[in-house]
Fold Laccase.
Amino acid sequence: MKLLAFWFALASALLLFSLASAATVEHTFTVQNKIIKRLCNEREIVTVNGLFPGPKLEVREGDAVIIHVVNNSPYNITIHWHGVFQLFTAWADGPEYITQCPIGPQHSYTYRFNVVQQEGTVWWHAHASVLRATVHGALIIYPRSGKYPFPKPYKEVPIILGDWYDGNVVDIYDYTLAVGAVRVSDAFTINGLPGDLFNCSKQQTFKLKLRQGKTYLLRMVNAAFNNNLFFKIANHKFTVVAMDASYIEHYVTDIITISPGQTADVLLKADQPIGSYYMAASPYVVGQPSPLFDNTTTRGIVVYEGHTSSLRDSKPIMPILPPFNATQVANKFFTNITSLVGAPHWVPVPLEVDENMFMTISINLERCSKNATCLGLFQQKFSASLNNESFVHPVGKGFSMMEASFYNVSGVYTTDFPDYPPVAFDYTSPKNALDFGRMYPSKSTKVKKLKFNSTVEIVFQNTGILNPQSHPMHLHGFSFHILAQGFGNYNATRDRVKYNLVNPQIRNTIAVPAGGWAVVRFQANNPGMWFVHCHVEDHTLWGLNMAFEVESGPTASTSLPPPPPDLPKC
Ligand SMILES: *[C@@H]1O[C@H](CO)[C@@H](O)[C@H](O)[C@H]1NC(C)=O
Ligand SMILES: *[C@@H]1O[C@H](CO)[C@@H](O)[C@H](O)[C@H]1NC(C)=O
Ligand SMILES: *[C@@H]1O[C@H](CO)[C@@H](O)[C@H](O)[C@H]1NC(C)=O
Ligand SMILES: *[C@@H]1O[C@H](CO)[C@@H](O)[C@H](O)[C@H]1NC(C)=O
Ligand SMILES: *[C@@H]1O[C@H](CO)[C@@H](O)[C@H](O)[C@H]1NC(C)=O
Ligand SMILES: *[C@@H]1O[C@H](CO)[C@@H](O)[C@H](O)[C@H]1NC(C)=O
Ligand SMILES: *[C@@H]1O[C@H](CO)[C@@H](O)[C@H](O)[C@H]1NC(C)=O
Ligand SMILES: *[C@@H]1O[C@H](CO)[C@@H](O)[C@H](O)[C@H]1NC(C)=O
Ligand SMILES: *[C@@H]1O[C@H](CO)[C@@H](O)[C@H](O)[C@H]1NC(C)=O
Ligand SMILES: *[C@@H]1O[C@H](CO)[C@@H](O)[C@H](O)[C@H]1NC(C)=O
Ligand SMILES: [Cu+2]
């Protein structure tokens, strides 16, 4: 009895302590234009607080976050906190027309949310039009205890991989989408800098200083628009400790493969001779014939302290990057990793499934309207779909989808997103690449309704229509377990037995293999309207999206609260 009372007192004390130490992190994000020079040209870009990449947001697990977004740019904007669960705070999630109407020029909105039950590196980015190109930054969630499940690194360094369009990205995309074509970026970047392989860019090269013998934590984000990236540092190995803010079994590798939307926490030990080394990133692209892509390489320089001036003229050592189509390299990285069972915030795989879905992912075409100029394949426009539905944002309806859900407004979206494609076919066969019977999806704004706390399993099946590509599918509001993945067509009889129900990766963005499939499972324990989309910017713009409408639970504390009073109006 005494002992029990003691434990109760201790537990209460600890609870009080942890409550007391939870802080409020409050910042103002002023969205504003700024002129910066890259690739020989001065360009006006949209930034947060004049910074590119944007400010690093640092919180501790359990903190309340308040971000006042003041829009002094000429564009509509929203901010999404990519990877943050937004438990019962769906109004702060950000995707335009899904959870909110955009913040108009000269307007503001305050995002209020708690960061709970997760730690590691995630990021924030604009989720309106194409503004995420330059409006993004790292969001670092430190453990509440201050302890990592690995030795404390000497220093932490964000590595944000991105790309650069040599022009106004909104104007570029207005034109590109109007003609239905593809316009690739002009450079990749490391922390906003293209590096010395580009003209006028010697001074635009990211430099990382290392002290020999120390271990650094690289907090990596792939913020690039359209490309998976390989990342290497000459002569160095990495130990990956977390992906998408979920701890993994330590994984030693000399190369990181990272898809748009994904993050990785990577230990780098400065265990090489004092000298200088390049870090470099180049694209991983699949498809036969390979689609149009930016085939440039960005690089930065790693310099050890004590590297003397007499050696300064010697060139840094350059890593050997794999060829752009090295699927084996990418696949090894994506499949050879398991979650760290029992690590902070680790969750077991839910075993009972309530909803089974099978989603085909396709690149498609849209017929060119009369008199229009179309510069996509076959003089038509590119499109994209899930289960033959190409998602249209409900612009001009007066409400975002989640407001429509909350206020019972009809006519904004429908709840008939199909659980299966209309007809089964040989999804990945190259013979179907030019099957025009499957080329033109319907355009719709369809969601799938889910009961609170139901468990959903999705088989993502890539198709070979037009061109098989790797699609990084991102789910808002949740992380999912990746039960299995493979090439060719998913076959339940053959593939269900391969499910890893013990220690699968837990992610918010899965790179579904080109010409292959992946199975994910999550528990819908968070009411709201949760966007699901390919994080390749072109593909989401073409309609490769859907949403889950998760109903409220039985109690007030498991229900979606009313929208905040300052939620922007359409
Ligand atoms: C650099 O400039 C030269 C001369 O204008 C040009 O030929 C070359 O293509 C440029 N290289 C890059 C990477 O832009
Ligand atoms: C990139 O693509 C262009 C055009 O296809 C080609 O001329 C060039 O050699 C390629 N560069 C690299 C580095 O692969
Ligand atoms: C990669 O592309 C090259 C041509 O650029 C081609 O010769 C090679 O077969 C491709 N490799 C794979 C694995 O597709
Ligand atoms: C990772 O690769 C190693 C070496 O090929 C293999 O022994 C191991 O089973 C793989 N692990 C997973 C989880 O795929
Ligand atoms: C196409 O252009 C012609 C000639 O300019 C015009 O008469 C016609 O109305 C246009 N059609 C459409 C659908 O815009
Ligand atoms: C929306 O409809 C549901 C079910 O019909 C009802 O319980 C709820 O009160 C309605 N909400 C509003 C805001 O009208
Ligand atoms: C996809 O939808 C379009 C438009 O509704 C329809 O014409 C087409 O037949 C559908 N494709 C399949 C394979 O059902
Ligand atoms: C959701 O379901 C799980 C069992 O799958 C249960 O443990 C949990 O308490 C439920 N959560 C809520 C909020 O009802
Ligand atoms: C699925 O796999 C089973 C077991 O390997 C096999 O017997 C069956 O033929 C496969 N089905 C198809 C459609 O390939
Ligand atoms: C900006 O948002 C308003 C309100 O939703 C909308 O009517 C308008 O079309 C948007 N402008 C652009 C350029 O998207
Ligand atoms: Cu995609």
About this structure: The pocket of 2-acetamido-2-deoxy-beta-D-glucopyranose (ligand 1) is lined by residues 198-199 (CB under 6 Å).
